[in-house]
Amino acid sequence: MKFLSKKATCNSHGQDSSYFLGWQEYEKNPYDEVQNPEGIIQMGLAENQLSFDLLESWLSENPDAAGFKKDGESIFRELALFQDYHGLPAFKNALVEFMAEIRGNKVSFSPDNLVLTAGATSANETLIFCLANPGEAILVPTPYYPGFDRDLKWRTGVEIVPIHCSSSNGFQITKPALEEAYEHARKRHLKVKGVLITNPSNPLGTTVTREELNLLINFIDAKGIHLISDEIYSGTVFDSPGFVSITEALVDRNMQNSDVWDRVHIVYSLSKDLGLPGFRVGAIYSNNKTVVAAATKMSSFGLISSQTQYLLSVMLADKEFTRNYISTNQKRLKERHDVLVLGLQDIGISCLSSNGGLFCWVDMRHLLKSSTFEAEMELWKKIVYEVKLNISPGSSCHCTEPGWFRVCFANMSEETLNLAMQRLKFFVDSTTTHRRSPGSPKKMFLTKWVFRLSSYEHEPER
Ligand SMILES: Cc1ncc(COP(=O)(O)O)c(C=O)c1O
């Protein structure tokens, strides 16, 4: 297109991916229990709506925090004028303590090493700007969060080289997979500057094991590169084995005085653990003074508003509240996760065993017509347009094995989740019946079975 920059017209943003296309389809026809009961149910959005009541009751008990008041006095003018990109000290203190609380206070963080950003999206991009030049590479284990194509590559000009993980070991990171990715980058003449992991993983919903963390530490040590650990889901870990943060793994190996200590950077945000993606609260935590200084300067492009910082500084400083919030939220996530896993099990669909996150990594390989990404796309379209569930196909997460889907469970009511299970069950039953008798005239028409859903609920098991 004429007169526009290459950046504005290139398509490395990734918005054509089925991950974002599914959202668009949902927007056109969103499910609503009363207004649009036959609409698409959004299961492709990793939002946490399970503990809003806790936040709301805290807000009603602490009206001053959202009302620009401190000790009963208005601080409106102070907040309106505040524009220091170092952030409000009270908020940074409260945030590092919250991060330590999530990690069972096994490690501590200094507010001096924290850079505030408008969400983890901004934190990840800022870190990439600090660590790599255009045309250099970051290794990322697959499957990975589809937003990384935008966050790590689009504006920075940096390449992602996948570390291929497979279902044979539950998609864990292995030494050969790391070495292979490194070698692959070398063959493409790309200089590798680091590895980026998500812990717990999006889309797997699993925590990275201590063995994997040690492997990664050894790898970045040997290659002289960086490690970014995106720990945005750290507060969602609801089951054993618990969350081991990269900081804990380094401290346990007494690596505070090593080179590696300065080459490990954490990304965090309150979008998932507190369920506040709209507040745009993220952070980079790094022991590298140069990275902290550069990222702080860059944070001018995406700061957190002062009233948000103020409100959250009061909320997170309330230790009784944060402790209760973290444990209650985890309990609710586990319950919800179990509803999804058991519901799917009932339909003959299994999930990768997971212990965190707001989603499950669901194995639908047996529902594919063939083991190809074309067949995965075909199944995905059926699930979106006929079953009316927006889930994310593994291909959008760069998974190398067709047939896996990410299904979110914390952005809806339990009733809606149950309805989604009913729809899926009906679809799977019809598909398998159809397959069992290929000559059968039974063809599934969406309108017919969607209308039947409410009565289906009361029908006996067939
Ligand atoms: C792994 C990961 N990193 C970063 C983000 C972006 O989060 P934020 O809303 O804080 O920008 C997400 C959101 O889904 C995510 O899953």
Descriptive overview:
Residues 438-462 have low confidence and may be disordered. The protein has helices at 6-9, 18-28, 52-61, 63-66, 76-81, 89-102, 119-131, 148-154, 175-187, 210-223, 246-252, 289-298, 306-317, 319-346, 373-386, 414-436, 446-456; strands at 41-42, 69-70, 73-74, 114-117, 137-141, 159-163, 192-198, 226-230, 264-269, 282-286, 350-351, 359-363, 389-390, 392-393, 404-408. The protein folds into 2 domains: 6-52 and 327-456, Aspartate Aminotransferase, domain 1, CATH 3.90.1150; 62-321, Type I PLP-dependent aspartate aminotransferase-like (Major domain) (Aspartate Aminotransferase, domain 2), CATH 3.40.640.10. It is α/β, with parallel strands linked by helices and 462 residues long. The longest helix is centred in the C-terminal third of the chain and has 28 residues, at 319-346. Helix 6 (89-102) packs across helix 13, helix 7 (119-131) crosses helix 12 and helix 16 crosses helix 17. The strands form 4 sheets. The chain has a 7-stranded mixed sheet, with helices on both faces. The protein has a 4-stranded antiparallel sheet with strand order 11-12-15-14. It has 17 helices and 15 strands. Pyridoxal-5'-phosphate binds at residues 46, 119-121, 145, 147, 198, 202, 230, 232, 269, 271, 277, 282.
